[in-house]
Design goal:
It is built from five helices and three strands, in the order H-H-E-H-H-E-E-H. By secondary structure, it is of the alpha+beta class. It starts with a helix and ends with a helix.
Length: 99
């Protein structure tokens, strides 16, 4: 029972992490491929400190993985199964809004 409870808590934490609209927008970019902070900011028309703050949350929760490339830090998905969760949820929401 404790394992199930721990799993449920971990899943709830993941959903809390994914529950911020800007974090989801950031993830939708990173799902497409590896991007650096500045590129994500430009694509989403947001400032770099704001993007970095949300990437820090995603990194701390092991949703994304950073990689230093010279002076830049780029991010990729840490686990493609999380990308699949986001894609599936978007597909569900798109099909529901189309009904």
């Amino acid at each position: 029972m404790s394992d199930t409870r721990d799993s449920v808590e971990s899943l709830a934490e993941l959903f809390r992490t994914l529950g911020h609209p800007l974090r989801l927008q950031i993830l939708m970019q990173i799902i497409e491929g590896e991007f650096c902070v500045q590129e994500i900011g430009e694509r989403l028309d947001r400032n770099q400190p704001n993007i970095s703050q949300h990437l820090s949350v995603l990194r701390d929760r092991n949703v994304v993985t950073p990689e230093r490339q010279g002076k830049r830090v780029c991010y990729r998905m840490a686990d493609e199964r999380i990308a699949a969760i986001v894609k599936n949820a978007l597909e569900i929401m798109s099909s529901e809004s189309g009904q």
